[in-house]
TrEMBL record:
Its main location: membrane. This is Acyltransferase. Keywords: Acyltransferase, Cell membrane, Membrane, Transferase, Transmembrane, Transmembrane helix. The lineage of its organism: Bacteria, Bacillati, Bacillota, Negativicutes, Veillonellales. It is a multi-pass membrane protein. The keyword Endoplasmic reticulum does not apply.
Length: 367
């Protein structure tokens, strides 16, 4: 018996895509010598749940499609995952390498050692590393299935311990550890966020557990609505308070504050969990207007090609601001956000409508 399509998960994909674009637009906003701190808080702080949320969504999709009690062929599964992630990763990596080489009038990025390093760590563009981590999660699927089977009956003990362990690991990785001088180990350390799945291990398992026990999770949320509202409110206030606090008490710049209060910080991890639960509750247990349903369905359906292409439109928009010597104040940043979102959306809709060869559809992430 086939499972029902989970609209709330698809809505979350669309919401997270909006959040990822916001984070990248925030990088442009931070180039303003006097950035709007409230706008930065929205773009770079409150949108931070989007990156780990995609690992939650990926794990949910995998375990919803391949539940622990159902049949699982690693070979068949891996062929499908490599087609949907690895091929688009290679295609878009090479595309962005060509794009940057033409823009900079330099082709040093295609030197063998540089190219190998770029592909290994996902360095062709600032967003493409996500696919590298995702590939490692996919390759290790038998391990995740084994561990979830072993811990499923003791979830009330396992998940708090896993969360605490992940917080400690991410704290040291983000704030304490210093890169070793040896060249090979130096690169492995410097680019650890680009491949090391341990940074997102809790949120991935949380997604897997949610998929395995989705009806029970929804029932729990219905009985704890007040808690979810309070949890989300407290997490939002904690994120904003931490952001303001490091600037006020430690005299951090807005850029330094963003590099401190991120998705792998302790409060960032709590905020990610609270936000996922909050929106799952809103979209599974409460009614959503038809307009919002259509909007988030549309965004969810095209979130993958939007993710892959949006840096192109962002670079064009940012180049225009630079060419016109425009200071990226709040009005220009909001216009840039709309420009990048709408052009990425239109591109994604267009390539789904036109007839393209099957191999190109795979490369573009629409098949």
């Amino acid at each position: 018996m086939s499972k029902r399509f989970v609209h709330s998960i698809n809505y979350l994909r669309g919401l997270c895509m909006l959040g990822v674009i916001a984070i990248h637009i925030g990088s442009v906003a931070l180039t303003n010598p006097t950035p709007n701190l409230g706008l930065i808080a929205v773009l770079e702080i409150l949108s931070r749940f989007s990156v780990p949320a995609f690992f939650f969504l990926s794990a949910f999709g995998l375990f919803y499609k391949y539940p622990l009690q159902g049949p699982f062929s690693y070979t068949t599964y891996l062929k499908r995952r490599l087609k949907t992630v690895f091929i688009p990763y290679l295609f878009w990596s090479l595309f962005y390498l060509c794009y940057m080489s033409v823009a900079e009038h330099s082709y040093t990025l295609f030197r063998p050692l540089t190219l190998g390093k770029t592909l290994l760590f996902g360095l062709s563009m600032y967003h493409i590393y996500f696919l590298v981590i995702l590939l490692w999660f996919y390759l290790l699927m038998p391990l995740w299935r084994y561990l979830l089977k072993k811990t499923d009956r003791h979830a009330s003990i396992f998940f708090p311990l896993l969360f605490i362990g992940n917080v400690i690991f991410n704290y040291y990785s983000s704030y304490v550890w210093i890169a070793p001088p040896t060249s090979l180990w130096h690169d492995l350390f410097v680019y650890r966020l680009n491949y090391l799945v341990l940074h997102y291990i809790f949120i991935f398992f949380f997604g897997a557990f949610t998929a395995e026990h989705f009806p029970a999770v929804i029932a729990w949320m219905k009985n704890h609505a007040v808690f979810l509202y309070l949890f989300q409110g407290a997490a939002v206030l904690a994120m904003l308070g931490s952001y303001a606090g490091v600037m006020h008490y430690w005299q951090y710049s807005a850029l330094s504050a963003v590099f401190t209060i991120h998705q792998l910080s302790p409060i960032g991890m709590i905020y990610t969990v609270s936000t996922l639960l909050f929106f799952l509750y809103q979209w599974e247990c409460r009614s959503l207007s038809p307009v919002c349903q259509r909007l988030f369905t549309l965004l969810g359906n095209v979130s993958y090609p939007m993710y892959l292409v949006h840096p192109v439109w962002l670079s064009i928009g940012a180049a225009y601001l630079h060419h016109r010597h425009l200071v990226p104040d709040a009005a220009y940043i909001l216009c840039l956000y709309l420009f990048v979102t709408l052009t990425s959306l239109l591109y994604s809709l267009l390539i789904q409508k036109i007839s393209l060869p099957s191999w190109l559809q795979i490369c573009l992430g629409i098949k």
